[in-house]
Every structure is written in C-alpha cells, then in structure tokens.
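Sample 1 of the test manifest.
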Amino acid sequence: MKITAALLETSGAAHPYAASMPLRLTALDLAPPRAGELLVRIDAAGLCHSDLSVINGDRLRPLPMALGHEAVATVVTLGDPDDQRFAPGDRVVLSFMPACGECLRCVSGEGYLCDRGAVANGAGEMLRGGSRLHRCDGAQESVRHHLGVSAFADHAVVDARSAVRIDADIPLEVAALFGCAVLTGVGAVLNTASLKAGESLAVYGLGGVGLAALLGGLAGGAIPVVAIDPSADKRALALELGAAAAFAPDGAEDAIVAHLGGRPDLVVESVGSARVLELAYGLVRRGGRVVTVGLPNPREMFSIPAVSLVGDGKTVMGSYLGSAIPARDIPRYIALWRAGRLPVERLLSNVGQLKDINTMFDALASGAAIRQIVFPQIERKSA
Ligand SMILES: [Zn+2]
Ligand SMILES: [Zn+2]
C-alpha cells in the first residue's frame, strides 16, 4: 500500500529545522506484513530526543530512514491470519526494541538487550530481516525502519514482538508515551536501579524521560526526590509533580547536599552528556547508584577517578529501554497511571500534525518542549 512517512535523507541539517526541513513527508510503498508481523495504523506518535539524535547525527543510522519510535497504533491486518496473539482492531503500544525471545539475553529475561533486535535496529531492518518500506519511484530503493517502528507515518509494518495490546479507552496522546518515555524513565528507576521505598533520588535533566524517572521514583516511594535542570519552567513542573526541591545546574551539588543533609542514594542522568554523568557520579553518596539513560555523542568520554569505584563503593548503571519487559511493564505502568500515581499526561507540551514535525523538533532541540505528539490520521482524513 501507499503511505506517507516523515523521511530523513541526510543527518546534520542546519537549525532551524523549520527552514532546513530534514524530515520530508514522502509517499512510500509499504509491503504487506509477513508471518509474525502486523500492519498497523499509527494513531499517535511522540517526538523523542533519540529521533533528534538521528536527525542531528549524534546517533549514526543508515539512511534514508523513516523516523519515529514511540507510538500507539491499531492493528489492521496480521501477516499470519491464524496468529492468536492479535486481532484486527486491537489497540497496541509499540516498543522500540523488538526482542526475538530466543537468544541468550532474551531467555535470560533481558530482552531489552536482545542480540538479534540490536543488530536489526542498527541496520534499520525488521527483526525478520529486510525492509518493508520502498520508494515509489522506478528504482524502488529500500528505506530503513527506525527501531522496528517508523511511527511518523500513517501506517507501519511492525514485528508482533514490538507490540503490546492495551485497552482502547486510554487517550491516544497519553498511550503513546508508554512506548518510550515512560518505559525508559520509570524503568530506569524501578527496574535498573531497583529503587527501595524511602531512598532519596536526584534526577538530572527534566525532558520526557527525566520527568518520567521522577514520576517513577515518586510512585516507587523515593523520598525525597530532587531535580536539576536549567529551565525554570521545567523545575516548576517538577515541583508541581511532587519533587521536594529543584535546582538550576550552577551550584546544584552544594544545594542538594544542604537540602538532603547528605548525598542522594540514587542519581539518574537523563541529559545525554558525559559531563553531567560525571557530576551525577560526584553527587551520589558512597555506596550509591548512578543510572544513566542519556545517549551522549559517541565521541564523548566519561572520566572518573578509577580508585573511587572501590574506595567509595559506587555503582554506575546503563539503562537501555529502562531494562523493561514491555509486555509486563506497560500494563503495570498503565495501572499506576489509572490509579493517579503516574500522571504522565503532565509530560505533554503540544500536539500537532506530521506537516508540523520539523517545527516541533525545533521546540524539542531548544528545550522548550517536553513531549509533543503528532496524529498522522488527521492528515490522512483531510488529504
Ligand atoms: Zn525514545
Ligand atoms: Zn533475543
């Protein structure tokens, strides 16, 4: 079928993106789903900093690529009609790490580190290999999938292992957030760091993932929770959400130590900066944990006094996909949201259409926006 997708041809476009237009709405051929795959209608998709990292070249991916990896969708057809896992009409949240279920990491319960999924995502291919996206012109050049999702489009073919069924009553702009921001941020605290109730938590960076980590910490019983961000608006939001204090980066370490009467048990770094990771390591108490969910440019090096790992007994943990098992964690986080304990709708800054997407990425790059959502079906109806 013919679809319209936001296509990235080259990375490193000049700012503002509203003028350079790195993402072009392009007509593409979408092949039918193979056995074990689903054709889905994308109902809502979120703009995430890792999309921006592909656009600006911090995260090198093969191009051309149809971007977007955080979405809620509706199943249209199954590649194998006898597949019992899904039915047409099912509402699904898409996860950006398709886990094969068979490799050693998967059978060890660490599907977020799936070997085959990582290779497929690095190549911009489906978990079952190859691409289902092609240009419509004569050459039929194949187009890469972004993390097995490619959600800035009206439809997509995804592996069934990328999809988690949810109830249809959840507002679309809220449901989409569970695919990346919430899964990553809440999971970093509850899964990767195994937060214990009563531990103190500091969060560097109040983007979508950082705020989700803050909410996850509050839901998991962290007390107190403090936050660090240069934006006064985001600090104010953190306080509204339940943070005990929020600080600008200058002088934050001393202010936090004074506020806590000591150092935090757990520090989350969500900025994607090696320098901030070093600050997080310096801030955490002896014996404490630092969890990082940011994706710095690959050239950045992280430097700490080597002896401090032993001498201070600190732990540094990398958290990919919030160490999540999506089929387990998305329903859990939705249950917390229904109970009012994970108000993730507060992360929403703005909604728009695919045609607005470059301007919306400017708002993300400047730090003005937290989470923005596009509704690809609005254009389809009006086209
Ligand atoms: Zn993301
Ligand atoms: Zn696997």
